[in-house]
């Protein structure tokens, strides 16, 4: 495979000054590289610093006046840089916490403080009532009291362990650690298992003193910090809970709140480790398995009880305006081909890191694109810079906008490039694998500010040191930021780009995510903000100016093949594991190995894992190889100008042929057949999700159906590629 | 291999009532099984309970009056059971802590308490001054003050990490966690690296609330508990530090204390986690790597400093009498063939678990053997029951005794069977692999008290559940109990037997190892004490009565082959790892992956790992296969009585042909060429130690020499086996 790629690069990619720029003729590539040099020279880190100070000066969650002011100010900035900027507003349901009560009623009394302390040296943390109280958005209202059960991270494997121990959470309140999954999975699973309430806390092992010195001495979470966050069932659908699949315009028809399927079934509240400690200390019952234990100075027991807790939550459920800023610069040659670039602007509190660090890099990128345009280098395709509102409660601003403009976006968008919080460290990039070649070329051409090698080489060095395959690959996207509606709902070719890994801390979604914290621990000189602007700037400019859209198919094929291999191996591994398990049940190994003085539920024989027929997908992949090999033999950058429009149109729509308009089982909103957030992981991606999740859940009939659906989708994708091949050749 | 063994059992082992008893004719086996039934029926768990109460009533470390009383009382008991019991006393150097001072002198002051608290419900912990203060025996005297450095477990890999971080312990005092190696390795390595003092503490992650509820609520170590223990350099030689290789009789010539090589070079003191916390909290410098961090509620930093500590230790270095109890019952037919059985009787404090739980099982076994003898079933070979003194400070009682009687022991002993602390759970057995078949047969015939399957089957179920090969194998012995002088110095066929795994706790070498603790958390009804007596009782009775000593050679061969394979693979793995490492140094991967704001020492190219010639050992093993195959074709149990004496004499001496009288490099006391405690692991075994440690230390010349030595040793062993074959055949 590597040899083929190497040949491919020898034959068809035009090296200019040692660089290759797919999508351009040789002279076009030279001009583009010249443009990028100018672009780099105009970037100014001081802007990022000044803008962050402004935008993160006060809390600006959805519906706040400061959030609206930020949106208006950004629109003004975009206009001053030559964009046609407007604010598109949706009316979205947003719960504000009216009443939050958590108390232990026995065997000791304890009333949770539920508030993080202001710290020395960071005035932002002293803004009192303006700071949004800590809570989980889209928790149900509730008033419950019950015995407590510690459920580790509250993910499926944890409930399997509880079952082994004979512990049932029915009628109980669970306490789960943050991490291990996206937070919304915890109350979702707890409710499925019959729990009546859910507490989520940040254990110092994952997110506190175990990781490093705590704020304000160091960057990590102190004992009072609480991570806010949405628990909306985003794996079912993101966006406004009352308007699934369509825009939350002022006059839209809305679901009754009680019918909204993405609000949790049970009340859920996040707490600090200071508040969690007395609760965990009061639990008895079995000692938690070793990999469940955190870093609090207690013996972690599971319960249930004797700790009893009372959890009472009331929310003010109001429609709030979500203000998306949309800044357009029509393309000089191809105004109906859109390059969209976005980052959200709303934050849970000040959000210096999340999202402002990414937002200001986007703005600086847009400013320089504007400046270059003024100087005569207006992009050929239309540039649309977006600042999304209401991302934090559930990707709401971007989702409503995509739902609002769905068909036009599908018709015109050539790429959506997303960013979010940014920090010091290593480039990470995820998205449509047809873009892997282009992203690689970009990553090879941006210099890492700390080491003076390319950001690609720095990342590869890190992979090498970790003992991994030292290639720069795109990751698959799950969810957790605004690419989701573009990629997984609308089937738009998408990327998500960021730097990080050397700016770790515990500020995420807390009152400590401030400018002060960012300057001390994240990217003090904004050099990685600039590196981000250079990376995404190159990506959008290449996409905007390319003669032929720089999509390639070998990396896509290689990647999707590995997904299929993984699932086939998963099935075989499950089968082998199940056989061993059943043999051990039959030979009484579990019983004999168990300590008879400890709780033990005699395990039962489980159903065998059948052999399943993957051949429809294997055959579809085999057919794709042929087409992709033929495409690799065509020099796309050299096709005559007369054919480019047609080829580009087909390339522009290509990602959509990987979607199916029936969507995934039980979640029709998710239409992409290659990438989706996991139904039981949340942010974590599941690739070939229809098949993979059916296998994981042992739904063999559904697995067979989804194999057929994926095979059809791949055939459809093959059809599109054949069309491109035909157009390019004729 | 399995098929061969199976055939072998079909052909030559005599099943009686479904059991196989190697070493006996068919009728001899039947009689032996009948005897074992009687033996089982006479065992009484109440004796263990009553005797433990007596022996563990007061502290009884070496030199105490209570220790002497225990010895005399035991001798009396043995006499009452029909043994000829005597006390053999040696005069051994034993340091008693006169002055123990540990204080932090800056940046804050803290004076370590150095004492565990008495607890509710356990009167033994309230014996005040009688409780031996916590210390590490054979620490040097010293008075040092310096900055502190946290060194994780203080093992070689930890110093490699420190080197990567550019941290030097020269002139510093190190603080290391217990665990990760035998404790004596920590000051030994620290001193080699230039540290001037060493503190060892029990982190709650390994040994405290992280593991379970702490004493007295649960079994685990509370914040004040301190593990005592020897830090004598036992991997160089155990036993009295002043009389290396010869007995510490009253009039023996002794080294000057300053010349004793097994006393540490620097002062070392163990402390509780209560005392460690302020010291660790005061450290700055890099945050410790993730796998170094414990469960204290602090951010683990490495230092050096700013914490400075002052450590002052003075010991009263006196010769103390160590009283070994030796109880002999001459064999009815073969009085010059000895079966020796031992357990130590000295404890750091009360030692209910360590060693009394094993001691009382040995006594009950001896009592019943005596009773059976009185009833006409006197063992054919001589039985010698031993209760060793001064095991805790460094296997002193047993070592001096072996050194005292070396040539007679080598001439007469057919087996040494050791036990030590015992608890509830799973059988573990280690020792000479020529005994694996016999131990398996015994393990198949003893019933587990909790599950009613054989102790072998229960152990196999546990292995299966852990995903390991479910065969009951003997482990290789390193050090840590009294088998060491027998096996590794004198080359006597040896075993170490015990139950455990379900009685975990934090009492080891603390004031909490009491009868009260044992009854609550270890083996409350002494059923595993009885299971131990049944297991070791069968072993000694079979060895005592066998027609032909039940040694087999296929399991030995299979096991030693795996050791050789491991070392060859280790060498290849080291080579491959080194090549990768050097490539990463050359490609600057480490530099590029490192966070430039954190300490980083540019790594250097390291020497390549050469290919080495293992063929001498491979050829010696190949020659052994031939002999062992031939031996497997002989029915040893059926050889005529006239030949038995000669064959048994050769079998009795066989293990000695695995020794080399020059010993291991730099530690001539260790003469066994297959098993030794690791020079840098302490208790942890190194198999084929001469070769393995040379490879690990990259001493390639020494590796080649040791390959030659081991090949010669294996040839010597082959010669002995050929002699046996010849004698058996003629």
TrEMBL record, chains A, B:
InterPro entries in alphabetical order: PA_dom_sf, PA_domain, Peptidase_M28, Peptidase_M28B, TFR-like_dimer_dom, TFR-like_dimer_dom_sf
PA domain segment(s): 144-224
A UniProt-annotated Pfam family: Peptidase_M28
Domain Transferrin receptor-like dimerisation, chain residue ranges per copy: 614-721
Signal peptide positions (record): 1-18
Residues in coiled coil: 560-587
Domain Peptidase M28: 324-518
Family from the record: Belongs to the peptidase M28 family. M28B subfamily.
Name of protein: M28 family peptidase
Species of provenance: Fulvivirga sedimenti
């Amino acid at each position: 495979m590597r040899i083929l790629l190497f040949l491919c690069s020898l034959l068809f990619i035009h090296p200019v000054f040692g660089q290759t720029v797919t999508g351009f003729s040789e002279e076009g590539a030279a001009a583009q590289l010249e443009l990028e040099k100018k672009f780099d020279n105009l970037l100014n880190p001081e802007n990022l610093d000044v803008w962050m100070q402004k935008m993160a000066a006060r809390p600006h969650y959805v519906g706040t006046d400061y959030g609206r002011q930020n949106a208006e100010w950004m629109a003004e900035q975009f206009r001053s840089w030559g964009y046609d900027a407007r604010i598109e507003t949706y009316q979205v349901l947003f719960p504000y916490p009216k009443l939050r009560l958590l108390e232990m009623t026995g065997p000791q009394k304890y009333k949770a403080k539920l508030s993080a302390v202001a710290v020395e040296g960071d005035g932002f943390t002293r803004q009192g009532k303006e700071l949004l109280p800590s809570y989980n958005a889209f928790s149900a209202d509730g008033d419950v009291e019950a015995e407590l059960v510690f459920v580790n991270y509250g993910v499926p494997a944890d409930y399997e362990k509880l079952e082994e121990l004979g512990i049932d959470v029915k009628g109980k309140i669970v306490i789960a650690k943050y991490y291990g999954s996206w937070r919304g999975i915890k109350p979702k699973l707890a409710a499925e298992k019959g729990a009546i309430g859910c507490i989520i806390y940040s254990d110092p092992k994952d997110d506190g003193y175990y990781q490093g010195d705590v704020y304000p001495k160091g960057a990590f979470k102190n004992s009072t910090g609480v991570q806010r966050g949405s628990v909306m069932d985003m794996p079912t659908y993101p966006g406004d809970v009352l308007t699934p699949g369509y825009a939350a315009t002022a006059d839209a028809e809305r679901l009754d709140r009680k019918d909204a399927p993405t609000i949790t079934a049970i009340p859920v509240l996040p707490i600090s480790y200071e508040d969690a400690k007395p609760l965990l200390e009061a639990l008895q019952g079995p000692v938690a398995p070793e990999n469940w234990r955190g870093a609090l100075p207690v013996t972690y027991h599971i319960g249930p009880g004797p700790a009893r807790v009372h959890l009472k939550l009331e929310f003010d459920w109001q429609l709030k305006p979500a203000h998306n800023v949309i800044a357009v610069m029509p393309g000089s040659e191809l105004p109906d081909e859109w390059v969209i670039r976005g980052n959200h602007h709303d934050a849970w509190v000040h959000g210096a890191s999340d999202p402002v660090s990414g937002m200001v890099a986007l703005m600086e990128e847009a400013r320089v694109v504007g400046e270059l345009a003024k100087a005569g280098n207006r992009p050929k395709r239309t540039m649309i810079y977006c600042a999304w509102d209401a991302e934090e409660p559930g990707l709401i601003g971007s989702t409503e906008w995509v739902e609002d403009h769905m068909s036009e976006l599908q018709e015109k968008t050539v790429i959506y490039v997303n960013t979010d919080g940014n920090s010091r460290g290593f480039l990470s990039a995820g998205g449509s694998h047809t873009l892997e070649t282009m992203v690689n070329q970009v990553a090879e051409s941006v210099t890492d500010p700390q080491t003076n090698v390319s950001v690609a080489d720095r990342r590869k060095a890190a992979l090498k040191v970790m003992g991994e395959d030292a290639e720069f690959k795109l990751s698959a996207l799950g969810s957790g930021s605004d690419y989701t509606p573009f990629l997984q709902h609308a089937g738009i070719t998408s990327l998500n780009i960021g730097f990080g890994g050397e700016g770790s801390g515990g500020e995420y979604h807390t009152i400590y995510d401030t400018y002060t914290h960012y300057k001390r621990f994240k990217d003090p000189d904004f050099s990685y903000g600039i590196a981000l602007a250079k990376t995404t700037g190159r990506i959008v400019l290449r996409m905007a100016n390319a003669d032929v859209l720089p999509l390639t198919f070998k990396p896509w094929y290689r990647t999707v093949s590995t997904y299929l291999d993984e699932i086939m191996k998963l099935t075989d591994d499950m089968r082998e594991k199940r056989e061993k398990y059943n043999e051990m049940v039959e030979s009484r190994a579990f019983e004999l190995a168990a300590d008879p003085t400890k709780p033990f539920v005699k395990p039962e024989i489980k159903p065998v894992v059948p052999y399943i027929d993957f051949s429809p997908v294997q055959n579809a992949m085999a057919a794709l190889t042929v087409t992709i090999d033929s495409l690799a033999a065509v020099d796309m950058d050299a096709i005559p100008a007369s054919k480019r429009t047609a080829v580009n149109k087909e390339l522009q729509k290509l990602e959509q042929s990987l979607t199916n308009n029936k969507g995934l089982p039980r979640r029709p909103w998710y239409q992409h057949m290659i990438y989706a957030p996991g139904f039981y992981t949340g942010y974590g991606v599941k690739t070939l999700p229809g098949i993979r999740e059916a296998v994981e859940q042992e739904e063999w009939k559904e697995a067979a159906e989804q194999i057929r659906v994926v095979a059809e989708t791949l055939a459809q994708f093959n059809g599109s590629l054949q069309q491109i091949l035909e157009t390019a050749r004729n």
